[in-house]
Backbone:
């Protein structure tokens, strides 16, 4: 018992830089209080004392603003930051080292008996206001962005954002290197475009860079073939792309970002 309490307190220090000392964590963190009350309610629920379990759970909701059904299964080092407005359904399952922020709902999408709430595997992080709805699994180490609405399974390590939730796939390092090389070759500076940004403009630019890379490779092959035939056509220089022609666009982008 005391080992679990020590783990809970240490998990706060690991994931909340605002935590200053153990006494403050013990007395001022409603997320911890909600987890401890849930453990009592869960023990009563498993002992078939259903009404008493619901009463204890309801007391925890009144005290902390966090509603965890006593039938929910919660792993070790579960951390709830701020916590107000969190709802965790009866058949939800939460692994070890999971983090939830305020306003999160682990809910169901039907009134059928049986499994109807999500399973969060180890190390999952769910941002503020997110809704994870349905009897599916969010894989280990996955992240759910703030205010996302997730209704489908999430693979391990993925990041989900938006309404409805969509998975952001991290780009391949080799492909990123080719895109960067092509951008430098043509004098393009993709200011403010990050690899994890779910931006349709960024995706379109990346597709153009991929297309230019393919065209460039094909031209080099054609020029090599023409050279072997004795032609000097490819000796001609291509028109230069001057950096100052793109300066106004770059300055405009930077002013908008600031």
Residues:
């Amino acid at each position: 018992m005391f080992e679990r309490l020590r783990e809970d307190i240490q998990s706060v220090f690991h994931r909340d830089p605002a935590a200053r000392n153990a006494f403050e964590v013990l007395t001022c963190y409603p997320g911890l209080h909600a987890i401890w009350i849930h453990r009592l309610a869960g023990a009563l629920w498993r002992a078939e004392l259903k009404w008493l379990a619901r009463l204890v759970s309801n007391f925890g909701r009144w005290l902390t603003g966090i509603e965890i059904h006593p039938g929910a299964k919660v792993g070790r080092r579960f951390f709830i930051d701020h916590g107000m407005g969190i709802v965790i359904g009866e058949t939800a399952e939460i692994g070890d080292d999971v983090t939830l922020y305020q306003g999160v709902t682990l809910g169901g999408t039907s009134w059928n008996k049986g499994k109807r709430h999500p399973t969060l595997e180890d190390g999952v992080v769910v941002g503020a206001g997110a809704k994870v709805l349905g009897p599916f699994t969010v894989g280990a180490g996955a992240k759910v962005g703030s205010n996302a609405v997730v209704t489908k399974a999430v693979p391990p390590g993925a990041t989900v954002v938006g309404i409805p939730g969509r998975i952001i796939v991290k780009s391949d390092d080799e492909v990123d290197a080719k895109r960067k090389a092509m951008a430098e070759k043509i004098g393009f500076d993709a200011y403010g475009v990050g690899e994890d940004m779910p931006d349709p403009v960024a995706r379109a630019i990346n597709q153009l860079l991929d297309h230019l890379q393919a065209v460039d490779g094909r031209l080099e092959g054609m020029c090599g073939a023409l050279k072997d035939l004795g032609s000097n056509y490819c000796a001609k220089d291509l028109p230069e792309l001057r950096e100052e022609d793109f300066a106004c666009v770059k300055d405009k982008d930077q002013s908008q970002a600031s």
